[in-house]
Design brief:
This protein is mainly alpha-helical. The chain is about 60% helix and about 10% strand. It has a domain at about 35-120: Winged helix-like DNA-binding domain superfamily/Winged helix DNA-binding domain (Arc Repressor Mutant, subunit A). The chain has helices at about 15-35, 45-55, 60-65, 70-80, 105-125, 130-154; strands spanning about 55-60, 85-90, 100.
């Protein structure tokens, strides 16, 4: 179990809290994936979510949207293909481009995947008011944009 050993003299670094949230979130997802018997691992979640949200997306599009390097995306999509959850179709105008779609098997479990994500957010938002939730999300997106701008300019 992760413990918060923050002392009064230690500054509040938000990246530490975000790291805790990420690791707890991963543990939650692993537990729920096992409970629901989902056929893929938590590491493939960003890829299948991009395919669900953007049927026909390219691998480059997945990498950009998920903020993943191309090699990680290639491995993640390949794993989903082996599991029968993703299918590639070659672009008719540019044979070098492949569009990635969810398979019927992926669509069968889509509601379960989104239900688990909703459950995660119910836990994350517990105790927050209706006004605090969009504020928290907005602040985190602003921090994400700060990092994106940093890497775009450096």
């Amino acid at each position: 179990m992760l413990e918060d050993n923050t002392s009064m003299t230690q500054p509040d670094y938000i990246n530490r809290v975000i790291s805790y949230l990420y690791r707890y979130g991963q543990r939650f997802l692993v537990k729920k994936f096992n409970e629901y018997g989902l056929p893929f691992e938590v590491g493939q979640l960003p890829f299948i979510m991009q395919i669900y949200r953007n049927p026909g997306i390219t691998q480059e599009g997945i990498s950009a949207n998920a903020v993943m390097d191309k090699g990680t995306t290639a491995r993640g999509v390949k794993r989903l293909e082996k599991l029968g959850l993703a299918a590639r179709e070659t672009d008719l105008r540019d044979r070098r481009v492949n569009h990635i779609y969810p398979t019927p098997a992926a669509l069968e479990i889509k509601d379960w995947v989104f239900r688990i994500i909703d459950e995660l957010h119910q836990v994350l938002y517990r105790g927050l008011s209706e006004d605090e939730i969009p504020l928290a999300v907005s602040l985190l997106f602003r921090m994400k944009d700060n990092m994106k701008d940093y890497f775009s300019n450096n």
